[in-house]
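Quick check before the chapter quiz. The format below is the same one you will see on the exam, so make sure you can read both the input and the output lines.
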Amino acid sequence: MARTVFYLTRHAATLWNEQKRIQGQWDSELSPAGQAAAAELASRLAGQGFSRILASDLGRCRATVGILNLRLRLPVTLDKRLREQHFGLWTGKYWRDVPEADRRAAEAAGWGFTPPEGESRTEVRLRAVHALTDAARASAAKTVLVVTHQGVIKAVCYHLLGRAYLPDEAPAFDPNRLQRLVCLDGQLAVDGLDVALPPPPDAA
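Here is the expected output.
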């Protein structure tokens, strides 16, 4: 039976990330620090046996893939189902400008968290899981690097871990590190959290 392995990684940091501004499905440029981190990640991913890259079609993921592929040189498939959660009327706002009561009420809904005129975490999870299982059918017995968004990684992994996605839960993993999933016979499972990578070959 074919077993597909996915390594999920978040896109490199953007200017809006550093400004704590809500991007959702909008975009901003990668920050200088984000570009440098992506280049370092590429050197650590080299030689890990990836067959291809699967990525969100949003600009910040495509820019991250561009930096990674200067080193990895892998075929790329873009899938809009791996986009970040749609944050509706909150898109473009600074987090500090979202009324705390509104944010708390939304987060208390767990999987039902839905920004005004946006989409829920459940909707994100459903589309992302479908994207991954479809990719597993197309890339059977392969190892795939997935470049996506924090909200997508958390939605998929929290679902597989049986989490309620409530604000009082301790974080299950660091969304800035790699998370490993396996897909066997169309069923996804978590295979490793906060996966360690070797240091860059030129590290002292």
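If your answer matched, good. The helical segments are 15-18, 32-45, 59-72, 100-107, 121-138, 150-161.
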